[in-house]
Amino acid sequence: MSAPLALVYRGPAARPSACSDAVAHLLRSSPRGFDVRFVGRQGELPLKPKILAQATIYAQPGGGELTPAYRHMRRHRSQIRQYVAGGGRYLGFCLGGYLAGATPGFGLLPGDTDQYITSSHATTRGSQDTTIDVFWRGRRRRMFFQDGPVFVLDSEAGVTVLARYGNNEIAAVVAPFGKGRVAVVGPHPEATSDWFTDSGLSQVPTLDLGYDLIEAVMNA
Length: 220
What we know:
Elements lengths: L4 E5 L8 H12 L5 E5 L9 H4 L4 E4 L5 H8 L3 H9 L3 E5 L1 H5 L11 E5 L14 E7 L2 E7 L3 E5 L6 E6 L4 E8 L2 E6 L7 H6 L8 H13 L1
Parallel strand pairs: 1-2, 1-3, 3-4, 4-11
Antiparallel strand pairs: 5-8, 6-7, 6-9, 9-10, 10-11
């Protein structure tokens, strides 16, 4: 039996490429053992509807800023929405979470996104790499963080909130969109050891949280 196909965006809306590589590693090493292919300008395959139609899940990594990233991605907005609405799964990390919002973004969430660092009682205010505490399924966990989003929902009905920041804002959530599902996270559960060492941070293992995010969107 062949492994399920996961598509990971790789291109100018996810820089550096290590962001895409980390998401690919998370998907490959997860219990589902995805067959991962990169799509986008720097990927193996083009980001087109016929390619998306073959995928079990599409992942949008972190890296870069929202406005320039959306300029690269807006041409794909309709096809990504159609893919998810038809039963696909969208997985967004940090910038990929911002892009799931509406201003600007793909409009996949029942609400929008905002910066955690500007939210009331945020535990960090700068855009530098750091680690922060979140409450993942009620348990305190330390995670790699770099100016990630909060998810501001019109309603929490029908959604699964996986994690909250220390100020109770939503840090990770799974929500329906059409026949499909969307899973987004503000911090970085996919962060590899070099992310921590390069930033002078103490390493904390969080791949298990990434696997939980994947299972939550696949089983929803």
